[in-house]
Amino acid sequence: MIELQEDGEIACPAALVWAIVADYGQDPRWRKGVKTMAPRPEGIVQVGTTTAEVMRFAGRTYRNGGEVIQVEPGRSFAWRTTSGIDAEGGRLVEPLGEERCRFTFHVRVTPRVTSEKLLEPALRWLLRRSIRADIRRLAGLCAS
User: Fold this and answer.
1) Mapping DSSP to helix (H, G, I), strand (E, B) and coil, where does residue 3 land?
2) 27-52 pLDDT, tens per residue?
3) CATH classification code of 2-143
4) How far apart are alpha carbons 106 and 3 in whole angstroms?
């Protein structure tokens, strides 16, 4: 199992960051490997929001279905996959004053096939690097 939690301070109000990270339709703008993300319903997540994601990671294309299972409006939400990879996680936005916040991205992935299990240390490193870069892209998007 690969479990990661990465965070970063963002020089933007928490409400602005929330408006981006809680709208799955925005994911391709700041998550590099996400080719398409189709949430239903569109807009800010709510319990029961479903997603159809196509992403590229470590040289492979993944098609994942997901659902939002918990929401604390303006602050956090949790999700899990319903098809594709076996994963779950969450996103958290914490204000650090009026013009700054901390964004935390948590993910737990359970490799299913032997090749992915054998490559788990390398996949963990790649995923950590990818999430950190995504948080930097998010900070840039929020500041623009």
Assistant:
1) strand
2) 999 999 999 999 999 999 999 999 99
3) 3.30.530.20
4) 8
